[in-house]
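Help wanted!
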Amino acid sequence: MTQQFTALPTHAAAGPLFAHIARQKTGTALLEFAVLGSSSAGNASILRVTTADSRRQILIDAGLSPRAVRGHLSVLDFEMDETNEVLFTHFDNDHAKSGWGKVAMETGLRLRCSSRHVAGARARGYPDIAIESFDARGAGFDLGPVRVIPCENPHDDGGTVAFRLETPAGDLGFATDLGRVSDALIDSMRGVHLLAIESNYDPVMQESSNRPRFLKDRIMGGRGHLSNAECIDAVRAIAWPDEPEQVVLLHLSRDCNCRELVGDLWADALPSLAPKLRISQPFAAMQPIRMKEGRVQP
Ligand SMILES: [Zn+2]
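Answered by r_m:
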Protein backbone atom coordinates (compact mmCIF):
# COMPACT_ATOMS: atom_id res chain seq x y z
CA MET A 1 0.00 0.00 0.00
CA THR A 2 1.45 3.40 -0.91
CA GLN A 3 1.53 6.43 1.33
CA GLN A 4 -0.90 9.00 0.00
CA PHE A 5 -1.18 12.53 1.26
CA THR A 6 -3.85 14.88 0.05
CA ALA A 7 -2.54 18.14 -1.36
CA LEU A 8 -4.83 20.45 0.57
CA PRO A 9 -7.23 20.01 3.45
CA THR A 10 -10.72 19.94 2.04
CA HIS A 11 -11.74 22.49 4.65
CA ALA A 12 -9.35 25.04 3.18
CA ALA A 13 -11.63 25.27 0.18
CA ALA A 14 -14.83 24.93 2.16
CA GLY A 15 -14.18 28.02 4.24
CA PRO A 16 -14.38 28.66 7.95
CA LEU A 17 -17.11 26.30 9.13
CA PHE A 18 -15.45 25.99 12.53
CA ALA A 19 -16.93 27.54 15.60
CA HIS A 20 -13.72 27.66 17.64
CA ILE A 21 -11.97 30.79 16.46
CA ALA A 22 -11.12 32.32 19.83
CA ARG A 23 -7.54 31.15 20.33
CA GLN A 24 -6.32 34.05 22.42
CA LYS A 25 -5.72 33.06 26.04
CA THR A 26 -4.73 35.45 28.76
CA GLY A 27 -4.14 35.27 32.50
CA THR A 28 -2.11 33.13 34.84
CA ALA A 29 -3.85 29.77 34.40
CA LEU A 30 -1.55 26.79 33.84
CA LEU A 31 -2.28 23.64 31.82
CA GLU A 32 -0.11 20.57 32.33
CA PHE A 33 -0.50 17.46 30.19
CA ALA A 34 1.42 14.20 30.01
CA VAL A 35 0.86 10.83 28.41
CA LEU A 36 1.66 8.22 31.08
CA GLY A 37 1.75 5.35 28.60
CA SER A 38 0.16 4.64 25.22
CA SER A 39 -0.02 1.44 23.20
CA SER A 40 -2.32 -1.53 22.78
CA ALA A 41 -0.94 -2.65 26.17
CA GLY A 42 -2.53 0.34 27.91
CA ASN A 43 -3.40 4.00 27.58
CA ALA A 44 -3.62 6.77 30.17
CA SER A 45 -2.88 10.51 30.13
CA ILE A 46 -3.10 13.18 32.79
CA LEU A 47 -4.38 16.75 32.48
CA ARG A 48 -4.07 19.27 35.32
CA VAL A 49 -5.43 22.79 35.04
CA THR A 50 -4.62 25.33 37.74
CA THR A 51 -6.26 28.77 37.90
CA ALA A 52 -6.16 31.49 40.55
CA ASP A 53 -9.04 29.88 42.43
CA SER A 54 -9.33 26.29 41.25
CA ARG A 55 -7.49 23.16 40.24
CA ARG A 56 -8.80 20.22 38.23
CA GLN A 57 -6.98 16.97 37.56
CA ILE A 58 -8.39 14.64 34.95
CA LEU A 59 -7.13 11.24 33.91
CA ILE A 60 -7.96 10.61 30.24
CA ASP A 61 -8.50 6.86 29.94
CA ALA A 62 -7.48 4.40 32.63
CA GLY A 63 -5.89 1.62 30.61
CA LEU A 64 -2.98 1.33 33.05
CA SER A 65 -3.47 -0.13 36.51
CA PRO A 66 -4.04 2.27 39.43
CA ARG A 67 -0.67 1.20 40.80
CA ALA A 68 1.11 2.03 37.53
CA VAL A 69 -0.66 5.39 37.25
CA ARG A 70 0.20 6.27 40.86
CA GLY A 71 3.85 5.45 40.16
CA HIS A 72 4.00 7.56 36.99
CA LEU A 73 2.22 10.49 38.64
CA SER A 74 4.51 10.58 41.66
CA VAL A 75 7.59 10.70 39.38
CA LEU A 76 6.01 13.66 37.54
CA ASP A 77 5.13 15.44 40.79
CA PHE A 78 1.39 14.90 40.49
CA GLU A 79 -0.73 13.62 43.37
CA MET A 80 -2.86 10.62 42.39
CA ASP A 81 -5.34 11.52 45.15
CA GLU A 82 -5.96 14.94 43.61
CA THR A 83 -7.47 13.30 40.52
CA ASN A 84 -11.10 14.38 40.24
CA GLU A 85 -12.20 12.03 37.51
CA VAL A 86 -11.43 9.75 34.61
CA LEU A 87 -12.74 10.72 31.17
CA PHE A 88 -13.09 7.59 29.05
CA THR A 89 -12.77 7.48 25.28
CA HIS A 90 -14.20 3.92 25.32
CA PHE A 91 -13.96 0.70 27.29
CA ASP A 92 -11.58 -1.59 25.46
CA ASN A 93 -9.23 -3.27 27.90
CA ASP A 94 -6.31 -1.06 26.86
CA HIS A 95 -8.30 2.04 27.92
CA ALA A 96 -10.12 0.84 31.04
CA LYS A 97 -8.53 -1.47 33.60
CA SER A 98 -10.94 -3.04 36.07
CA GLY A 99 -9.07 -1.90 39.21
CA TRP A 100 -10.38 1.64 38.83
CA GLY A 101 -13.83 0.68 40.11
CA LYS A 102 -12.33 -0.07 43.53
CA VAL A 103 -10.36 3.20 43.51
CA ALA A 104 -13.56 5.09 42.70
CA MET A 105 -15.38 3.45 45.60
CA GLU A 106 -12.56 4.30 48.01
CA THR A 107 -11.82 7.86 46.91
CA GLY A 108 -14.94 9.26 45.24
CA LEU A 109 -13.19 9.44 41.85
CA ARG A 110 -15.84 9.98 39.16
CA LEU A 111 -15.80 7.71 36.11
CA ARG A 112 -17.17 9.79 33.23
CA CYS A 113 -18.22 8.22 29.96
CA SER A 114 -20.64 8.55 27.08
CA SER A 115 -24.16 7.39 27.91
CA ARG A 116 -23.70 4.93 25.04
CA HIS A 117 -20.72 3.38 26.87
CA VAL A 118 -22.30 2.80 30.28
CA ALA A 119 -22.76 -0.91 29.55
CA GLY A 120 -19.04 -1.08 28.77
CA ALA A 121 -18.22 0.61 32.07
CA ARG A 122 -20.38 -1.88 33.96
CA ALA A 123 -18.71 -4.75 32.09
CA ARG A 124 -15.39 -3.54 33.54
CA GLY A 125 -16.93 -3.93 36.99
CA TYR A 126 -17.26 -0.20 37.61
CA PRO A 127 -20.01 0.50 40.16
CA ASP A 128 -23.04 2.49 39.02
CA ILE A 129 -22.56 4.93 41.88
CA ALA A 130 -19.20 6.02 40.45
CA ILE A 131 -20.28 6.26 36.81
CA GLU A 132 -21.26 9.67 35.51
CA SER A 133 -22.52 9.60 31.93
CA PHE A 134 -22.71 12.44 29.41
CA ASP A 135 -24.32 12.88 26.01
CA ALA A 136 -21.47 12.54 23.50
CA ARG A 137 -23.70 14.16 20.89
CA GLY A 138 -24.45 17.11 23.13
CA ALA A 139 -22.87 20.55 23.24
CA GLY A 140 -20.50 19.74 26.10
CA PHE A 141 -20.18 20.27 29.85
CA ASP A 142 -17.90 21.91 32.40
CA LEU A 143 -15.52 20.24 34.82
CA GLY A 144 -14.35 23.18 36.94
CA PRO A 145 -12.27 25.39 34.64
CA VAL A 146 -12.32 22.79 31.84
CA ARG A 147 -14.99 22.85 29.15
CA VAL A 148 -15.38 19.36 27.66
CA ILE A 149 -16.70 19.11 24.09
CA PRO A 150 -17.10 15.48 23.00
CA CYS A 151 -17.08 14.12 19.44
CA GLU A 152 -18.08 10.55 18.51
CA ASN A 153 -15.97 8.44 16.17
CA PRO A 154 -16.29 5.01 14.55
CA HIS A 155 -14.31 2.26 16.30
CA ASP A 156 -15.38 -1.39 16.45
CA ASP A 157 -19.03 -1.73 17.55
CA GLY A 158 -19.31 0.86 20.31
CA GLY A 159 -17.34 3.79 18.86
CA THR A 160 -15.03 6.13 20.71
CA VAL A 161 -15.30 9.67 22.01
CA ALA A 162 -12.69 12.33 21.27
CA PHE A 163 -12.47 15.38 23.49
CA ARG A 164 -11.83 19.05 22.92
CA LEU A 165 -10.88 20.33 26.38
CA GLU A 166 -10.99 24.11 26.53
CA THR A 167 -9.20 25.72 29.46
CA PRO A 168 -8.17 29.27 30.39
CA ALA A 169 -4.52 28.30 29.71
CA GLY A 170 -5.00 26.68 26.31
CA ASP A 171 -7.13 24.10 24.51
CA LEU A 172 -6.27 20.41 24.26
CA GLY A 173 -7.62 18.08 21.58
CA PHE A 174 -7.48 14.38 22.45
CA ALA A 175 -8.42 11.79 19.82
CA THR A 176 -7.51 8.11 19.82
CA ASP A 177 -8.79 4.82 18.41
CA LEU A 178 -10.30 6.45 15.36
CA GLY A 179 -11.56 4.19 12.62
CA ARG A 180 -11.48 7.10 10.28
CA VAL A 181 -11.45 10.87 10.51
CA SER A 182 -14.76 12.67 10.00
CA ASP A 183 -15.30 16.31 9.12
CA ALA A 184 -16.92 16.65 12.54
CA LEU A 185 -13.71 15.52 14.26
CA ILE A 186 -11.58 17.94 12.24
CA ASP A 187 -13.99 20.73 13.06
CA SER A 188 -13.98 19.80 16.72
CA MET A 189 -10.18 19.75 16.98
CA ARG A 190 -9.42 22.77 14.82
CA GLY A 191 -7.68 25.64 16.59
CA VAL A 192 -6.49 23.69 19.65
CA HIS A 193 -3.14 24.73 21.10
CA LEU A 194 -2.16 21.18 21.94
CA LEU A 195 -3.25 18.16 19.91
CA ALA A 196 -2.89 14.52 20.99
CA ILE A 197 -3.91 12.10 18.24
CA GLU A 198 -3.26 8.48 17.40
CA SER A 199 -0.82 7.38 14.70
CA ASN A 200 -1.23 3.64 15.02
CA TYR A 201 0.42 1.77 12.18
CA ASP A 202 2.43 1.70 9.00
CA PRO A 203 0.38 -0.13 6.33
CA VAL A 204 3.38 -1.97 4.89
CA MET A 205 4.46 -3.24 8.31
CA GLN A 206 0.84 -4.14 9.09
CA GLU A 207 0.43 -6.15 5.88
CA SER A 208 3.74 -7.95 6.27
CA SER A 209 3.17 -8.78 9.95
CA ASN A 210 2.18 -12.30 10.92
CA ARG A 211 -1.08 -11.08 12.44
CA PRO A 212 -4.19 -12.98 11.33
CA ARG A 213 -6.10 -11.55 8.38
CA PHE A 214 -9.18 -10.70 10.45
CA LEU A 215 -7.10 -8.56 12.79
CA LYS A 216 -5.42 -6.68 9.94
CA ASP A 217 -8.85 -6.06 8.41
CA ARG A 218 -10.24 -4.89 11.75
CA ILE A 219 -7.42 -2.41 12.28
CA MET A 220 -7.31 -1.02 8.73
CA GLY A 221 -10.98 -1.33 7.77
CA GLY A 222 -12.29 2.07 8.89
CA ARG A 223 -13.47 0.94 12.33
CA GLY A 224 -10.07 0.30 13.86
CA HIS A 225 -7.12 2.66 13.94
CA LEU A 226 -5.45 5.44 11.95
CA SER A 227 -2.36 4.78 9.86
CA ASN A 228 0.53 7.24 10.02
CA ALA A 229 -0.58 8.78 6.71
CA GLU A 230 -4.20 9.08 7.85
CA CYS A 231 -2.99 10.80 11.01
CA ILE A 232 -0.87 13.23 9.00
CA ASP A 233 -3.81 14.03 6.70
CA ALA A 234 -6.00 14.67 9.74
CA VAL A 235 -3.45 16.90 11.43
CA ARG A 236 -2.87 18.86 8.23
CA ALA A 237 -6.60 19.61 8.07
CA ILE A 238 -6.89 20.40 11.79
CA ALA A 239 -3.83 22.67 11.65
CA TRP A 240 -5.36 24.99 9.09
CA PRO A 241 -5.35 27.92 9.53
CA ASP A 242 -3.85 27.84 13.05
CA GLU A 243 -1.18 25.27 13.81
CA PRO A 244 -1.10 23.69 17.25
CA GLU A 245 1.81 24.66 19.49
CA GLN A 246 2.55 21.00 20.05
CA VAL A 247 1.37 17.65 18.62
CA VAL A 248 1.58 14.42 20.62
CA LEU A 249 1.23 11.12 18.80
CA LEU A 250 -0.64 8.37 20.65
CA HIS A 251 -1.06 4.61 20.47
CA LEU A 252 1.79 3.65 18.12
CA SER A 253 1.67 -0.07 17.40
CA ARG A 254 4.68 -1.84 18.89
CA ASP A 255 4.62 -4.47 16.11
CA CYS A 256 3.55 -2.44 13.10
CA ASN A 257 5.08 0.99 13.49
CA CYS A 258 8.46 2.61 13.87
CA ARG A 259 9.26 5.93 15.56
CA GLU A 260 12.03 6.81 13.09
CA LEU A 261 9.71 6.16 10.16
CA VAL A 262 7.05 8.40 11.72
CA GLY A 263 9.61 11.17 12.23
CA ASP A 264 10.69 10.90 8.57
CA LEU A 265 7.09 11.00 7.33
CA TRP A 266 6.39 14.15 9.33
CA ALA A 267 9.59 15.86 8.18
CA ASP A 268 8.48 15.26 4.57
CA ALA A 269 4.75 15.91 4.87
CA LEU A 270 4.42 18.56 7.58
CA PRO A 271 7.84 20.19 7.96
CA SER A 272 6.52 23.16 9.94
CA LEU A 273 4.90 20.86 12.50
CA ALA A 274 7.60 18.16 12.63
CA PRO A 275 9.70 20.11 15.19
CA LYS A 276 6.59 20.40 17.39
CA LEU A 277 6.05 16.64 17.45
CA ARG A 278 6.31 14.40 20.50
CA ILE A 279 5.80 10.67 20.23
CA SER A 280 4.40 8.92 23.30
CA GLN A 281 6.01 5.76 24.67
CA PRO A 282 4.21 2.51 25.52
CA PHE A 283 5.50 2.18 29.06
CA ALA A 284 7.22 5.44 29.99
CA ALA A 285 5.54 8.70 30.97
CA MET A 286 6.51 11.79 29.01
CA GLN A 287 7.71 14.95 30.70
CA PRO A 288 4.59 17.11 31.14
CA ILE A 289 3.87 19.79 28.57
CA ARG A 290 3.18 23.04 30.39
CA MET A 291 1.11 25.74 28.77
CA LYS A 292 0.13 29.30 29.71
CA GLU A 293 -1.71 31.83 27.56
CA GLY A 294 -1.89 29.23 24.79
CA ARG A 295 1.91 28.94 24.64
CA VAL A 296 4.12 26.01 25.59
CA GLN A 297 6.33 26.96 28.52
CA PRO A 298 10.03 26.07 28.44
ZN1 LIG B 1 -6.83 1.28 22.05
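OP: Thanks! One thing I noticed: The longest strand covers residues 30-39.
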